[in-house]
Amino acid sequence: MKSEPDETSIDDALAARDQTVAWTGVRNYQARNFMRDQMQIGDGVLFYHSGCAEPGIAGIAEVASTCYPDPTQFDRKSHYHDPKSSPENPRWLLVDVRALKKIRLIGLPEMRAQAELADMLVLRRGNRLSITPVTASEWHHIVGKIAKAKKVLMD
DNA sequence: GCCAACGTTGGC
DNA sequence: GCCAACGTTGGC
To answer: pLDDT tens for residues A78-121?
Structure first.
């Protein structure tokens, strides 16, 4: 799951109550549908920093809720306000995400250098989805490289 | 700031 | 339903 660290970094998420943040601002149907149809509480999340000097995987997190309407869509003052959405018929959903651990940044060049990750959707040319599924083997390859991640996942 | 890539919008 | 125009994302 991509987040701009200027807005919500892995450090921000770890500092939040229960280390949990509501994943506001998704305004793409495919990304929304991943949250609605694919995610379950406890699923592993790679916390990815985008739109910054050093994009890459910055932490390990987990899905902490099922999906529910993103409140920012109803907030006229929010950057994420959607005038076409209404509480009676909400268009955009989110899940809560609990940060588990900050890890050594695995930057884009490092990710691209690994044959095991060559098919990761997030690395696809032109990919703009802020949420993409990760296969079990990709997940294991990444957390396997990080002692901290391995430790937290065994706890 | 540039630009490739892609999603959305809206006229027809 | 097509498709051009436009807006956004996001790496560089």
So the answer is: 889 898 888 888 999 999 999 999 999 999 999 999 999 999 99
Checking each nucleotide's C1' against the CA of A30, the nearest proves to be: B7
Total domain count, chain A = 1
The strand order across the sheet containing A96-107 reads A2-3, A44-49, A56-63, A96-107, A20-22
Bases of chain B below 7 A from a protein C-beta are: 4-9
Q: What is the mean pLDDT of residues A121-136?
A: 91
Global pTM reads 0.93
Verify if strand B has an atom below 7 Å from the CB of A28.
yes
Residue A130 domain boundaries: 2-150
Q: How far apart are the first and last CA of chain A?
A: 22
